[in-house]
Design goal:
The complex is a heterodimer of chains A (about 325) and B (about 525). By secondary structure, chain A is mostly helical. Chain A is about 80% helix and about 0% strand. Chain A folds into 2 domains: about 90 residues, no CATH class; about 220 residues, MetI-like (MetI-like fold, Orthogonal Bundle), CATH 1.10.3720. In chain A, helix 9 crosses helix 10, helix 10 packs antiparallel against helix 12 and helix 11 runs antiparallel to helix 12. In chain B, about 30% of the residues lie in helices and about 20% in strands. In chain B, the strands form 6 sheets. In chain B, strands 13, 14, 15, 16, 17, 18 and 19 form a 7-stranded mixed sheet that branches. Chain B has a 4-stranded mixed sheet with strand order 1-10-9-8, covered by helices on one side. Chain B has a 4-stranded antiparallel sheet with strand order 4-5-7-6, covered by helices on one side. The chains are: A mainly alpha (about 325), B alpha+beta (about 525). The interface between A and B is large, with 57 and 66 residues.
Chain lengths: ~325, ~525
């Protein structure tokens, strides 16, 4: 009950922010030259004035900006995200179609980056200034400095084009008609490269944070006490050091959940995955206001949810913190 | 002129080769039934109805599902599809189409002249881009019987113009599905129902579209393919990988980057060529805003054209996949091409002399004046050309500032707000100058219509030539009128057509009977099949 109450309170507190963000974005997009009809005409390769006027009426763009904003806000209050200009379907449907792929990619990449970063960070901290540390830190730096599209493309060239081990892109084999476990394996197979690509950069960050906070905690008094009372080095690290060193890592997960949504535009494009990032990019290029605002709305909700979970985790990791 | 000669030789070889490879030359083996062809789709389409949207992205998919009255045959002449024959009255104001009998829609209803009447009057004339222009003088379509459609025009309509245009702008939609509904919101716009060799199955947004064999297709025993899949891949580098791993077998309309096209040319698994896309030519352009004082002087416009080394640009930026344009009508359109040389060969001295003559002497820092250039980025080479123009003009003392916008933004800035001095993008030629080319020069286009004359430039003589040619029914006189028109606009250059290019397709050689008609990627693929590897 307490958790539910907390969740509701958190949501209520973020509602005004969410509203300001959406209205602000609406106005900001008015500053971008061109509307969705211009984008459509660009895609078609031309059209005449009569047809263009007709389309503006069709998309509800023939009225003034305040009226459009009023209509939008009114719909939003009724929890209606409106109609997508690109897809000709309600925005909520469009987003729900794309959400699973994004969540899957983001979830697996985040888990992989977190687990890998933690493990490598612990190893590096325990062997500080020796060759494993140097190796891990250098690798981390390389991962961090390389743009993800390059990683993705190199992965495709090596593992898909040259070796032929993994598929070059897509979410699953089209028209193969797999179902159940077979389909799950197929999707996992397709998501392997994109997950690795997206995870590597984040892994580098986690690894560095984990290493730094491990080193910091290792020098604290209670660690010396733990050692003094005769605990094995492994037990000291697991029970005492890691638990304390994890706090900044958890903070980072909360912060990066939002970045991951945005960061996957590149990965989604390179691997032709139907995710939210690419949808957002297409909405900007096609000036599809409703869809874009809908995505911002859903992303904001996701970030709020993730941060809420992070806060709960804090309390479990460190009893001194009260939610 | 070393490059010109080289290009002339190259294109002559290509032409000769294509002349000896008629339809069927590749089909020596017996066609195999079944198989799946997977094609690349570079951008998501809002609707899949070619009777409402004329664009290659829409044709690539829907031309397999819906059919037009006519299409181009292997030698580039209009051939029967849903229309079996046609006839124009001597005054050019009535065109009678005899329609194919025994054709049915994918939902089982028969195809009749009522469908043609409805599509022409309600879709082509009211909504279809370029169609509204083409059919502006269409008064009515009479249907004396179920298989005759008589188009009545207020002004003479050249039969050749109509037939060529109808290959793209002549797709027929089912009246019984659309009548009485809001046409733009009809669900059949994203789940098309047609008469074509393939039936629409599924459109998974952001991923793929599937169509499968229509067993009751009117061409007996066709199509060969069991199914066509279009995969949405937006990243150009990923497209090359998908081709190489066999995930897709075809990418057309420059779906690959220029460098990948160049690389895959030497890969034996693929054919990379412009064969079968001849009907779509395009140019790199430079638009002048002649409201700007300096650019209203034709000498300045000519000086700018003389200052850009087009051959160098083509060799180094376009991997040689172009030639310098000789005017707004491309050489791939023999019915109208007036021949000639590029009107403004690279000559820096002459450019400077012209600017001096116009009274724009260099200032103390060597600058004569500054211009704002808006690239309209509908191709990867557009920003490259913009930079190349910036540097070239810098050398003759014109300072150029490039304004970076995305396509929708650039179109609005140039064509609606007129907030530019120079703009650069693509002009697409669609088989006949009257379809989408003369609008670049004719005055009187309403403000805000993209890819029309919004340059503040007007010439009575040009307007008159354009109007006369558009309703001249004698093909020989019509060609002569366009030749006059080309020479005038080459003199005046309100827009400079810089290069002449064709789209490239990369096709896996497993695919048989591919690119055997001039607009193959936008054709029905009824005779396409896949050889086992």
């Amino acid at each position: 009950m307490r958790v539910l109450y907390l969740a509701l309170r958190r949501l209520a507190a973020s509602l005004p922010t969410l509203f300001v963000v959406l209205a602000g974005l609406f106005l900001l997009l008015q500053l971008a030259p061109g509307d969705t009809v211009d984008a459509l005409v660009a895609q078609m390769g031309g059209g005449d004035a009569v047809m263009i006027e007709e389309l503006r009426r069709f998309y509800g763009l023939d009225v003034s900006v305040p009226v459009q904003l009023g209509r939008y806000v009114w719909r939003l209050l009724q929890l209606d995200l409106g109609y997508s200009a690109i897809y000709g379907k309600p925005v909520s449907t469009v987003i729900l179609e794309r959400l699973p792929a994004t969540l899957l990619l983001m979830g697996s990449a985040l888990s992989f980056a977190f687990a890998g970063g933690m493990a490598l960070g612990v190893v590096a901290a325990r062997k500080v200034n020796r060759w494993p540390d140097t190796l891990i830190s250098t690798l981390g730096l390389i991962f961090y400095a390389t743009p993800s599209f390059w990683f993705g493309l190199m992965g495709i060239v090596i593992f898909a084009v040259n070796l032929g081990w993994l598929p070059a892109g897509g979410l699953e084999e089209i028209g193969a008609g797999h179902s159940g476990l077979r389909r799950l394996v197929d999707i996992g197979w397709h998501l392997l490269l994109p997950t690795l690509t997206l995870a590597l950069i984040f892994l580098a960050t986690y690894l560095r944070i984990m290493r730094a906070s491990m080193l910091e905690v290792l020098n604290l008094d209670f660690v010396r006490t733990a050692r003094a009372k005769g605990l094995s080095p492994g037990r000291v690290v697991r029970r005492h050091v890691m638990r304390n060193a994890l706090l900044p890592m958890v903070t980072l997960v909360g912060l990066q959940a939002g970045t991951m949504l945005g960061g996957s535009i590149v990965v989604e494009s390179v691997f032709a995955l139907p995710g939210l990032g690419r949808l957002a990019y297409e909405s900007v290029v096609q000036r599809d206001l409703n869809t874009l605002l809908g995505i911002v709305f859903v992303s904001a909700l996701l970030v709020i949810a993730v941060n809420f979970i992070v806060d709960l985790l804090y309390a479990r990791l460190d009893p001194r913190i009260v939610t | 002129m070393r490059l010109t000669r080289r290009h002339a030789l190259l294109s002559a070889t290509a032409f000769a080769a294509s002349a000896f490879l008629p339809r069927g030359a590749f089909a020596q083996a017996t066609p195999k039934r079944g198989g799946v062809l997977t094609a690349h789709l570079g951008s998501e389409q809002r609707i899949l109805n070619p009777a409402l949207r004329a664009s290659t992205g829409v044709y690539l998919i829907t031309s397999k599902i819906m059919e037009a009255l006519v299409d181009l045959d292997a030698s580039g002449n209009p051939a029967p599809v849903l229309a079996v024959s046609w006839d124009a009255a001597p005054d050019g104001k009535t065109v009678t189409f005899k329609l194919r009998e025994g054709v049915s829609w994918h939902d089982g209803k028969p195809f009749t002249s009522a469908d043609v009447q409805y599509t022409a009057m309600e879709m082509w004339k009211k909504h279809l881009n370029y169609g509204t222009q083409l059919q502006q003088f269409l008064e009515a379509v009479d249907t004396p019987d179920a298989h005759t459609a008589v188009f009545r025009y207020a002004r003479p309509m050249p039969l050749n113009l109509l037939l060529r245009a109808l290959c793209d702008l002549g797709y027929i939609a089912p009246r019984h599905v659309f009548e009485g509904t809001n046409i733009l919101e009809n669900p059949a716009n994203t789940a098309p129902i047609g008469t074509g060799p393939f039936k629409f199955v599924q459109y998974e947004r952001g991923q793929f579209i599937i169509a499968e064999r229509n067993p009751t297709y009117w061409r007996k025993d066709f199509p060969y393919l069991e199914r066509i899949v279009w995969r949405v891949i937006t990243d150009k580098s990923a497209v090359a990988a998908a081709l190489e791993t066999g995930q897709i077998q075809l990418s057309s309309y420059n779906g690959l980057s220029l460098s990948d096209l160049d690389r895959l040319k030497s890969d034996k698994r693929f054919e990379v060529s412009t064969r079968g896309i001849e009907a779509n030519a395009f140019n790199n352009t430079l638009e002048f805003n002649t409201r700007r004082k300096e650019l209203s002087d034709v000498r300045v416009r000519r000086a700018i054209a003389h200052a850009v080394d087009v051959d160098f640009f083509i060799e180094n930026f376009l991997y040689g996949q172009a030639k310098p344009a000789t005017g707004p009508i491309p050489s791939s359109s023999p019915a109208f091409y007036p021949a000639g040389k590029p009107p403004y060969p690279f000559d820096k001295k002459k450019a400077q002399a012209l600017l001096d003559e116009a009274g724009y002497k260099p200032g103390p820092d060597g600058t004569r004046f500054s211009l704002k250039l808006v690239p309209i980025m509908n191709g990867e080479d557009v920003p490259l050309l913009a930079t190349f123009i910036q540097q070239s003009l810098g050398e003759i003392g014109i300072k150029v500032e490039i304004v970076q916008l995305d396509v929708a933004g650039a179109l609005t800035t140039v064509y609606r707000d007129w907030n530019f001095d120079l703009a650069t993008g693509w002009h697409q030629y669609r088989g006949d100058p009257a379809v989408s080319t003369t609008v670049w020069y004719r005055s009187g286009s309403p403000k805000g219509s993209p890819w029309t004359n919004q340059f503040g430039w007007q010439s009575d003589k040009v307007d008159q030539l354009i109007d006369q040619a558009a309703s001249e029914i004698d093909p020989v006189k019509r060609k002569a009128l366009y030749a006059d028109w080309v020479s005038v606009v080459n003199e005046e250059i309100p827009v400079w057509m810089i290069t002449e290019r064709q789209f490239f397709a990369a096709t896996n050689k497993q695919v048989q009977n591919h690119h055997n008609v001039p607009r193959w990627d936008s054709s029905d693929w009824h005779d396409t099949w896949i050889a086992s590897s």
